[in-house]
Amino acid sequence: MKMDNMYHQQISLLNSLIEICHDRYEGFKNASNKIDDNYLKRYFTKCSRKSLRFIVQLSSIIKTMGGQINKSNLLVKAYRVWVGLHYGLLHSDLQSILRMCEIAEKKTLALYEDFLQNEDIKMLNTNCLKILENQKSTISKTYLEIQELLNSIQPLVLNS
Questions:
Q1: What is the pTM of this model?
Q2: Average pLDDT score over residue span 99-118
Q3: Got the DSSP string for 85-130?
Q4: pLDDT at residue 78 greater than cutoff 50
Q5: 66: phi > 0 → left, psi -120 to 50 → alpha, else beta; which?
Q6: Which residues form the DUF2383 domain (predicted)?
Q7: Full set of structural domains in the chain with CATH
């Protein structure tokens, strides 16, 4: 019974990560559509594609475990860290868009860190844990890159 409970918890948590990655995908896709700068358009498109890759990886883990992908996970609705980005992009300047991406990516990174500390997740096999760690590392790198982009445009904004 305890193993069965752990299994269901693992599947639920992995489904939550899928939904978070889907929100991340949508957020970066929307940012790419709102930006005129070709470099940033390509950068955000690359980030959204990485999120799709994360979804495929997480889906594969769930299927390998014999679980089902939950398309309507209500629990994760509270974790919609990218939703604010969707609304904030309506009439935003470059700095605001980058700031919203930075905030959302920071929250996404914190969620991954929390998930990886969960006792049920720690019981996944080594390959699954490695995939989750690699995803977290990519998110961390993206977060730092967005911070660098923000820092590079702030002097331009101050001088205008």
A1: 0.85
A2: 94
A3: HHHHTTT--HHHHHHHHHHHHHHHHHHHHHHHH-HHHHTS-HHHHH
A4: no
A5: left
A6: 11-117
A7: 2-159 (1.20.1260.10)
Mean pLDDT of the chain: 85
pLDDT band at 96 (very low <50, low <70, confident <90, very high): confident
Distance between start and end Cα atoms, the chain = 64
Long-range residue pairs from 101-108, CB within 8 A, at least 24 positions apart, any chain: 101/27, 101/28, 101/31, 101/44, 101/146, 102/143, 102/146, 102/147, 102/150, 104/24, 104/27, 105/24, 105/139, 105/142, 105/143, 105/146, 106/143, 107/81, 108/20, 108/24, 108/81, 108/82, 108/139
Between CA 46 and CA 52 the distance in angstroms is: 10
Residue type for position 65: M
| Those residues with Cβ within 8 angstroms of residue 53's Cβ, 6 or more apart along the chain or in another chain | none
Which two three-digit tokens encode residue 157?
């904004």
